[in-house]
Design brief:
Arc Repressor Mutant, subunit A, globular, alpha+beta, five-stranded antiparallel beta sheet, 33 strands
């Protein structure tokens, strides 16, 4: 027996090292960043407790009044060589992190002008693009000057540039910053934001600070949810109900499933060990924890892969004349073909409670997805609220809290759209329609699109 003890401890050590699961539990008031000097993650909880390293060892934050001015919810973090800096959300105060302390180095003030901007570094300098603040959306670029300890606006040459936006997706690669998506002002309702839906990828050449249109992408890939993101050496990862990998070098976008879905709050990437470190909500407890794992283990099954940038504006300018005729003929051909094309739809046998397509039974729906499709089919002539659908997923489950029910419904809805999209060869918006309740705009409603399901008695 004594001889087995070393083996037991060795196994336990390896197990903990591989899976990186922490036993820490903490509340929503926390943020996560990467310490460039020690090459390790740092977690700050309730602006008083600090955990560092992959062992998540508890440290005491060095007493410094400058730390209190840092916006606790969404600070920007920057790693420049071996230095780590944090900038208050909204722009303004700049703090250097060293020796478990946060030390203010700026002469600025809380500007509250660039919330949810796109942070990036170039030539050892801190920059922010866009953002929202003081009732306006931004498309400016600001830079922190380490010599004067002040923020300045970068000079942009005349020409086209992106529309004002915040929460944009951004990626720095070489001498260029790429920007796409985000939210901008709603011209009809000044207090609302709408998704930037132009499908344009913008490129900022950083040495000259000149903008140009890089190309077009399919904006329907991304919804209006607050995506989490991180950048590796040559790829951008966007996270919500799926994991999207955008590779600018190969011009591809890949969609991965989660191996196990988690409500991620913060995430950082270790470029040396190729690991992701993230905090997430444990729905069964209502508290948060932290985990580290290799990126390859974080990614689930590859579901789709396609080109990211569909066309380049420079090619479009030279070819637009010739393509007009070709595209017109293609559109007319598609239209004529669609008129003669037999409608594809599912058949629901209400007596047997089964679905068929092309006279073959559909057997790849799990119980939740099947129940959701039955419910939507039986109510396909009317709009149903999410509360009605949530009741469907909360009736026979032990864990009936609101978060768990929402998660089950969202997972079933995503699975249903994916499987019906592949089966019917239709986009999501031709399968499931969405709207806000006309009498109460806070309520979301769903309805099967026409010609998706036909019921037989």
């Amino acid at each position: 027996m004594p001889r087995l003890l070393p083996c037991f401890f060795f196994y336990a050590f390896i197990h903990c090292s591989l899976f990186g699961q922490s036993s820490l539990e903490f509340g929503k008031d926390h943020f996560l960043f990467f310490d460039a000097r020690n090459n390790e993650p740092v977690l700050v909880v309730n602006d008083s407790i600090l955990y560092s390293g992959y062992g998540f060892e508890k440290q005491q934050i060095a007493n410094n009044p400058g730390f209190k001015i840092l916006d606790f919810q969404h600070p920007y973090s920057f790693q420049i060589q071996k230095q780590t800096y944090l900038v208050a959300d909204g722009c303004g105060p700049v703090l250097e992190f060293r020796n478990n302390g946060f030390y203010r180095i700026d002469n600025s003030f809380p500007q509250r002008n660039q919330y949810f901007a796109s942070p990036f570094t170039f030539n050892g300098e801190i920059h922010l693009f866009g953002g929202y603040g003081l009732f306006t959306h931004k498309n400016l670029v600001t830079k922190y000057n380490f010599k004067t300890a002040e923020w300045t606006q970068s000079q942009i040459p005349p020409g086209e540039k992106p529309t004002e936006r915040f929460r944009a997706f951004s990626f720095t690669w070489g001498d260029n910053l790429y920007v796409f998506g985000g939210f901008t002002k709603n011209p009809e309702k000044v207090q609302e934001h709408i998704k930037v839906g132009d499908g344009t990828v913008w490129k900022l050449h950083l040495p000259t600070m000149k903008w140009e249109k890089y190309g077009k992408y399919d904006a329907s890939h991304f919804g209006i949810e607050p995506y989490k993101s991180f950048q590796t050496e040559n790829k951008l990862y966007l996270i919500y109900e799926k994991i999207y990998e955008v590779d600018f070098e190969e011009n591809t976008i890949k969609t991965f499933a989660f191996k196990e879905w988690k409500g991620i709050n913060d995430i950082v990437y270790d470029t040396v060990q190729k690991k992701v470190v993230y905090t997430y909500l444990m729905t069964n407890k209502g508290s948060y924890t932290i985990m580290a794992e290799p990126l390859k283990d974080f990614l689930g099954k590859l579901e789709t892969e396609e080109s990211f940038v569909k066309s380049n504006y420079s090619w479009a300018i030279y070819l637009v004349g010739a393509l007009m005729i070709v595209l017109l003929m293609m559109v007319m051909g598609k239209y004529i073909q669609s008129l003669n094309k037999k409608k594809k739809e599912l058949i629901f046998d209400s007596k047997r409670n089964t679905f068929h397509f092309n006279k073959k039974p559909i057997v790849n729906l799990n119980e939740n997805t099947h129940d959701l499709l039955v419910f939507l089919s039986l109510n396909k002539e009317r709009w149903v609220s999410l509360n009605e659908i949530n009741d469907l997923f909360g009736a026979n489950e032990k864990n009936n809290n609101h978060i768990a029910i929402n998660k089950r419904r969202e997972t079933a809805q995503s699975d249903l759209l994916f499987k019906l999209g592949n089966l019917l060869n239709k986009p999501n918006d031709e399968i499931l329609l969405e709207r806000k309740n006309p009498k109460d705009m806070r309520l979301k409603e769903l309805k099967l699109a026409p010609n998706v399901v036909r019921i037989t008695l």
